[in-house]
Amino acid sequence: MISDSLVMPILQGIHLSRSFGQGETKTTVLYDVSIELFAGQITLLMGPSGSGKSTLLAVLSGLLRPDSGTVMALGHDLWALSDLERERFRLRHCGFIFQGYNLFNALTARQQLEMVVRWGEGASAREARRRAEEMLDLLGLAKKAHLRPSELSGGEKQRVAIGRALIKEPNLCFADEPTSALDWKAGQQVIELLRSAAHDRGAMVLVVAHDARIIEHVDRVIHMEDGRLWQQEESEPVLHTIKQAR
After folding, report:
1. 92: which residues sit within 8 A by CB, 6+ positions away?
2. What confidence tens digit (pLDDT) does each residue in 100-121 have?
3. What is the pTM of this model?
4. Residue 143 located in a structural domain
5. What are phi and psi of 216, to 5 degrees?
6. Is residue 3 part of a domain?
């Protein structure tokens, strides 16, 4: 297995396999995938639709159980934990940015973020409001803080979802197509926030995306095709290709 340095990975997938369906309809999405991810790095996972990127992200983040293999996260065997222990682990250590936003329809943009800080960290109402307003301002949504999801555009909802993921300063941040609903100016802003989470706060950030413009803003690029990780220049499967941060 290849690693960037002698530093221990903060998140490690070991011989991961995952299939869907049974019998003649069974489709294997991950084939014996191994990967190491490190604190302080933003990693981009690229590949065509159906290559297994989102499935790998879900397995590594504790949302989808693999058929076989191990996920070690912050020293924990993630899939050996009970369901409740895994939920608590995600609440405490993980931030998620989904394509579908997953916002609560009844809550305002500010309340979406306040909820994470109050319930997840036990912060006071005043502290939660301060941090939520600070994050919304960073995302250019200060004037939209009082609006509910039905009153926001797709791009605005995506930025709220990103703020919700980053406000608790997670150790592990998982982003599935975080710029897909944004114009590139807003997309760059989002990637810079993710870079800051990695470089300034030491988080491990894994981004799944098709947008090649993101490559210039990340530390590592991993290519995936047909459920396997591949080196870009060769046909031999390897862990990843590495791109130096700029």
Report:
1. 120
2. 788 999 999 999 999 999 887 8
3. 0.84
4. no
5. -70, -10
6. no
